[in-house]
């Protein structure tokens, strides 16, 4: 029987089996494994940290093209004037102290058989297990005229926090009192189910205090408000009466950055600021291993107890790219990351991963500069069913000051959990 | 030896060695880690959310069970407590009590 390194790793983790290799005392020591994580967002950075915390014999390389972490959660608050870009921008400088090797680069090829990733910068990096955490790719082609309007700096999605968030804030500041802010919501599934409606609240908050004659038209590609409906409708009715014109079943088909219109099947809607959020799919890097393998070739199907791709062995996918009944959010990405890290530690040690992982989800949305509401659920994995929401989770019907304080605290804690 | 056989064997040996307690520890550790997202790294909060590292085991377990029963007023914590078994709550209590 020949034992390659992988088999040895699997067997040696079970102490008794390792001891059975008599005379191989040195082998029973601490064989090292290498995990490469692609993408240092909420999912990837958390996974890297927990792999190091739970797998001291695991070397971790984290590949990320950006210098800074810009948080999507709380980015709506920048639009409302509650926070600045600086407040939501954080460094990666504390991650190396966990023993994580940071590589600033982009993965351009993956050899699943040889278990090697290749980067734009020319590096070839081998792995025992690979974790892909790229977030979303925004399908700008699905709304006619969007790419041109985006390139001209006229229309943004701002659905990845960063330069577009800052530009959208500037556009709002330049908007005249009495103007119209038009926002479109993509058909689900998309990143951050309550995000569009929180954004409408934050923009309404800004307009109410600065340009009170203005209006918001929310063109929703869904038949109804996707998340926290009682919370948002209460806020629109009580805090911003008459300001938010909500139109369900109004998917945007085209945008014109010259005429400043968004066209739906029914109407050409004119606005002073247009914020069009196109549909999305799993991040581009997932396509390198054929992992966008759901029926629409958009999202990645995985074993939800380990987050290993059903398309590529030894490749795990976490975060918004995953197809599941779990909401696509930064908070859930950290949960994927922890379940995935725990599973990888067990698999590399030759043990069975936890077959029934349980995770908690918490999601706050602000409705003004002093009120927030939440939705919270515990999700329990069940074989054949995926994650099942435990009974009696749920959402607050009305925003309040206590939950605004918890919302602020949540942001501080999740940023520290992911990055410090 | 096929890959599948190796995996199955390794898994079996692993369980036999670590026993069920070992498996439960990984389960508890993972679910407890998901609490840190709101309660701060290692259970040390940086904001208005309470820190939970080093809480007395009995206090932790009683709090969660009271949230669940509705006998202690709570905002979000009832929603969370509802989702756990009493055994999971006891295991989390021991885990957080052990954190410094």
Q: How would you concisely characterize the structure shown here?
A:
The complex is a heterodimer of chains A (420) and B (100). Chain A has 420 residues and is α/β, with parallel strands linked by helices.
Question: How would you describe this structure to a colleague?
Answer:
The complex is a heterodimer of chains A (420) and B (100). Chain A is an alpha/beta fold. In chain A, 28% of the residues lie in helices and 25% in strands. Chain A contains 11 helices and 25 strands. Chain A has helices at residues 5-12, 15-20, 42-54, 75-80, 85-88, 146-151, 163-174, 195-210, 229-238, 330-348, 401-419; strands at residues 33-38, 58-63, 68-70, 89-91, 100-103, 107-111, 116-119, 124-126, 129-132, 136-138, 180-185, 215-220, 244-247, 254-256, 261-263, 268-270, 273-276, 280-282, 302-303, 308-309, 315-317, 358-366, 372-382, 386-389, 394-395. In chain A, strands 5-2-1-9-21 form a 5-stranded parallel sheet, covered by helices on one side. A 4-stranded parallel sheet of chain A has the order 13-12-11-17, with helices on one face. In chain A, β22 (358-366) and β23 form a beta hairpin. In chain A, 55% of the residues are buried. Chain B has 100 residues and is mostly helical. The model of chain B is unreliable at 1-24 (pLDDT under 50).
Strand order of the largest sheet of chain A: 5-2-1-9-21
Put simply, the count of helices of chain A is: 11
Order of helices and strands of chain B: HHHHH
| Number of helical elements of chain B | 5
β content of chain B, as a range?
under 5%
* C-alpha geometry of chain A: globular
So what's the oligomer here? heterodimer
Rg over C-alpha atoms of chain B, rounded to the nearest angstrom: 17 Å
Model regions low in confidence, pLDDT < 50 over at least 5 residues of chain B = 1-24
Contiguous uncertain segments of 5+ residues of chain A:
1-29
| Global mean pLDDT of chain A | 93
Structural class of chain A: alpha/beta
Radius of gyration of chain A: 23 Å
- Describe the biggest sheet of chain A? 5 strands, parallel
Strand fraction of chain A: 25-35%
Q: What class, by secondary structure content of chain B?
A: mainly alpha
């Amino acid at each position: 029987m020949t034992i390659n390194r992988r088999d040895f790793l699997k067997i040696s983790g079970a102490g008794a089996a390792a001891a059975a290799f008599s005379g191989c005392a040195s082998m029973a020591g601490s064989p090292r494994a290498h995990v490469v994580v692609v993408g240092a967002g909420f999912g990837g950075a958390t996974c890297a940290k927990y792999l190091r915390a739970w797998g001291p014999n695991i070397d971790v390389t984290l590949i990320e093209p950006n210098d800074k972490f810009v948080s999507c959660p709380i980015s709506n608050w920048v639009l409302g004037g509650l926070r600045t870009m600086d407040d939501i921008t954080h460094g990666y400088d504390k991650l190396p102290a966990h023993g994580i090797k940071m590589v600033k680069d982009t993965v351009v090829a993956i050899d699943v058989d040889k278990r090697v990733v290749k980067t734009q910068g020319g590096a070839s990096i081998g792995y025992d297990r690979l974790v892909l955490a790229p977030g979303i790719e925004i399908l700008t082609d699905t709304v006619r005229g969007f790419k041109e309007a985006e390139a001209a700096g006229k229309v943004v999605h701002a659905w990845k926090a960063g330069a577009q968030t800052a530009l959208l804030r500037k556009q709002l500041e330049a908007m005249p009192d009495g103007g119209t802010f038009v926002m479109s919501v993509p058909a689900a599934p998309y990143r951050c189910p309550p995000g569009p409606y929180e954004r409408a609240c934050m923009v309404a908050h800004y307009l109410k205090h600065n340009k009170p004659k203005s209006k918001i038209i929310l063109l929703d590609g869904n038949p109804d408000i996707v998340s926290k409906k009682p919370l948002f409708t209460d806020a629109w009715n009580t805090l911003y009466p008459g300001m938010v014109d909500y139109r369900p079943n109004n998917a945007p088909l085209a945008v014109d950055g010259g005429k400043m219109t968004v066209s739906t099947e029914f109407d050409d809607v004119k606005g002073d600021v247009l914020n069009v959020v196109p549909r999305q799919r799993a991040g581009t890097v997932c396509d390198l291993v054929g992992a966008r393998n759901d029926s629409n070739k958009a999202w990645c199907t995985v074993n939800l107890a380990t987050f290993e791709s059903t398309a590529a062995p030894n490749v795990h996918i976490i975060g918004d790219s995953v197809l599941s009944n779990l909401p696509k959010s930064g908070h859930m990405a950290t949960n994927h990351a922890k379940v995935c890290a725990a599973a990888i530690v067990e698999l590399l040690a030759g043990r069975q991963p936890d077959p029934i992982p349980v995770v908690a989800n918490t999601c706050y949305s602000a409705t003004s500069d002093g009120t927030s509401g939440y939705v919270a659920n515990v999700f329990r994995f069940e074989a054949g069913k995926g994650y099942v929401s435990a009974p009696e989770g749920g959402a607050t019907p009305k925003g309040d000051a206590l939950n605004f304080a918890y919302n602020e605290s949540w942001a501080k804690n999740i940023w520290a959990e992911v990055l410090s | 030896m096929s890959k599948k056989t190796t995996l199955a064997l390794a898994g079996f040996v692993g369980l036999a060695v670590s026993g069920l307690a070992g498996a439960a520890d990984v389960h508890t550790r993972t679910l407890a880690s998901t609490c840190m997202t709101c309660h701060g790294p290692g259970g040390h909060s940086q904001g208005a959310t309470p820190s939970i590292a080093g809480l007395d085991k009995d206090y932790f377990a009683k709090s969660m069970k009271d949230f669940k029963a509705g006998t202690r007023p709570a905002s979000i914590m009832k929603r969370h407590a509802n989702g756990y078994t009493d055994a999971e709550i006891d295991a989390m209590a021991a885990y957080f009590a052990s954190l410094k």
